[in-house]
Design a protein that fits this description.
- This protein is mainly alpha-helical.
- About 70% of the residues lie in helices and about 5% in strands.
- A two-stranded antiparallel sheet has the order 1-2.
- A hairpin with a 2-residue loop joins strand 1 and strand 2.
């Protein structure tokens, strides 16, 4: 897992590099609402899991395990939302959904931070609260993405603001650089999904199957 190359005296892991390329590809695919978003995210999560284990960052490793599960759920959800060749409908979260997402982030961050603090085998050496925030925020963003909620882009922006210093502190230099590019792509994705939803609201009614149509 520690195979890689050296740049400016720093060891760059191939798993970290390729995994982050996959993560950037996921953003590009999500902007276009293709179901391929999820298998690519699954592959990227597996690679970053290997990189995190090599860098001895168990909190980030656990996040990648969670990403694998969420990728499978999102794959199923988007596949159902685009069945019969219908386009995937994106929409803003309702007030109730936003309250749920915010509550999940707040409560989840507290719970996970306490676990990071008290479970010594996790070895969270730098700011367990930041690690917990990124862990929970990433999970909430992926869940909102699986529901085709425009708000998931905003959650990713908030997560990215903490992701750069954490990645650099952990020695995952490629991840730190990618977080910056990731942020730019997330902003573009948010504007694209928001514009699409706005245009659909003022356009003639279309026949489509939303992700949660039968729930």
């Amino acid at each position: 897992m520690n195979a890689g190359f050296t740049v400016a005296g720093e060891h760059i892991l191939w798993t970290d590099l390729v995994g982050n390329i996959a993560s950037l590809t996921v953003v590009w695919l999500a902007m276009r609402k293709t179901v391929w978003t999820w298998p690519v995210q699954l592959a990227g999560a597996l690679l970053l899991l290997a990189a995190s284990l090599d860098a001895q960052v168990p909190g980030n490793a656990l996040k990648q395990v969670l990403f694998c599960a969420l990728a499978c759920y999102g794959w199923y959800s988007w596949t159902r939302g685009t069945r019969d060749q219908h386009d995937l409908l994106v929409r803003p979260a309702t007030a109730r959904e936003r309250l749920f997402l915010l509550a999940a982030m707040a409560v989840g961050t507290v719970v996970v931070a306490e676990l990071f603090i008290h479970l010594t085998w996790l070895h969270i050496a730098w700011s367990p609260w930041v690690n917990a925030y990124i862990f929970v925020g990433s999970a909430v963003a992926s869940f909102a993405q699986s529901r085709a909620l425009v708000d998931f882009w905003i959650i990713w922006m908030l997560v990215d603001l903490a992701g750069v210093p954490l990645a650099l502190k952990s020695g995952l230099y490629v991840s730190g650089a990618v977080y910056g590019v990731f942020f730019v792509l997330v902003v573009l994705g948010f504007n694209r999904w928001r514009r699409e939803y706005r245009d659909r609201r003022f356009a003639a009614p279309i026949t489509a199957v939303p992700v949660n149509a039968d729930r």
